[in-house]
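Q: Hi! First time doing this. I have a protein sequence and I read that you can turn it into a structure. Is that right? Here it is:
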Amino acid sequence: MERHKINKELLFKPCKIGNIEIKNRIVMAPITPNLASPDGLVTNNLLHFYETRAKGGVGLIITGWAFIGDESSRDIGLQIGIHNNRFMPSLNSFTEAIHQWGTKIFIQLSYVGRKIKNRKILKHKKYNSIEYLIGSNYDLYQPQELTLKEIENIARLYGEAALRAKNAGFDGVEIAGTQEEIFYSFLLKKFNKRNDMYGGRLESRILFLLKILEYVKYYVGEGFPVGIRFTGFEDPHYVNDKIFNQSEVKKIAQILEKEEISYFNIFRSVLPVYVTKREYCTSQAIKEIVNIPVIATGSIIEPEQAENIISNNVADFVALGRELIADPHWANKVNENKNKDIIKCIRCNECLSRVIKLQVLKCTVNMNTVIGEKQKSFFIPKSKKRIAIIGGGPSGIKAAIIASNRGHDVTLFEKRNILGGSLIPASEPKFKFDFKNLLSQLQKDISNTSVSVILNKEIIRINSIIEKFDTIILATGAVPKKLNVPIEDKNKIYFYYDAICNPENIKGKNVIIIGGGLIGCETALFLKDIGKKIQIIEVEEDILLGEHDFFKKSELILMLKNSSIKIHRKARVRKIYKDVVEISKNNKIFFVPFDSIIITIGLEPNKILLNEEKNKINSLYLIGDCKEVGNLYKASHDGYSIGSII
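A: Yes, that's right. Below is the predicted 3D structure, encoded as structure tokens:
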């Protein structure tokens, strides 16, 4: 995106939702950080998570799902509950904490449909049949048709919850309308098979939602903002079905505006790093035909993006989710002309993966998310140590920065001429440009410390430096696993690091990638983009079997499909000749010609420096991939943790 000085007045101009004035156009998108108590109470950690974002300058916070009924209405993890009056004191403390920063807060009301978990509650209905987007965390149920009485009762639950929200001090409520919600199954023609007043035409399928709105307005009265979070027509390949077309979306919007809802909050799929073009089609389509505020969301990382959305009349507000997990002070930094200091989300989806696994929300680039944000300072060590860190990848850099900030004398050795380690090849493909932000941020952060960085220095033996240091931290990363087959010409064999960082050295046009995991597929796409003809050989039944992020995997498979890269599945390499690879598949032998081969069959910890007399080392730590091969999140947090306690 072309850089320019943004017009802050657009982002920080107040705007009303209903009769509530929001101080700026920056909204915290609904997030469920798994911090409520098991029964749904607002905990101190949850309150602090949201209050930090209010303090960070957002104009409006919309909470994550708050369940409005019994267990059958819950979705995932530790959600806020609003289904009983005993929750009122904690909810009121919540709103008062947010309001002291001049931020408004709406609560999102949710009654889950198709993602109901099997909690062994025999009495509850299993309401929906759309295939779950993320994976195997939820059982799929054959839907049972709601009775008219059940529809009425669920609608009443929304109204009662809205009244509790109003009495607890919330400034408005939002009715969650993503693909998981109960009424959404009614809206979708493909899944609504009813033959009564709630089935058939769109005007009938929307009646359940209108019934919900009727009850909500009855309970809260006039003037209290009631919005809808709505899924539009972007990202059809993520949901395996086209949810709505543009004309249907517009018709739904017009019907809801006549019902006097206060705003539309447009839901987007959780876009992974590979999505380089971000469109806001639904927001723009609705904005063109309604006279109420529209909120756009979807990987709005740069302030320029936010300004463009507002200035081009695509939406009235921008909602930031993962961006505010990465940097809760995003809004204040923009307002103070400190855009360069923003900790930018890299869309790795670690936060989403953790929440789906019912873990506490954490972030790859923000080590302090949630619990750590309470810390005002690090533990100051009793004595200053001389620390040597061997390896300048993400874990080594993080350990160096934190240890130095705590007062230690830190020296970082890196064998290459640049810091970054595995983050360097990870940020080279143009479809992963967000990772460049993190690489630049880490290099900038360490340059602002007293760490002595020694580049082009490979430590062969720890004993060569041990007398100069009190503590040694090994951050030597991982090394590629070797392919155990006969190879006639090793000059044509490369590993992924060299293939991505030095693609000019890859011989010829025909390139074979051996290994169809994440690294192999990304390498294949990178080389395809620079004009190579690629084939992937994968021994397993399919590629990317170790990748559990549905959104990342879905986009990557789509990119491979559109790239004409040939994939040999269930194919085992037997021998590599000078210009052909011998593979076996389905008990048959094939020969595949090549000019170069990239081996990406996995990584293993680089522990070569441990092959010494360890009793000579008083204090030794292993961090990152040299301890255990993991992802960027693990490496970064590993370095941060050691740097914090040493």
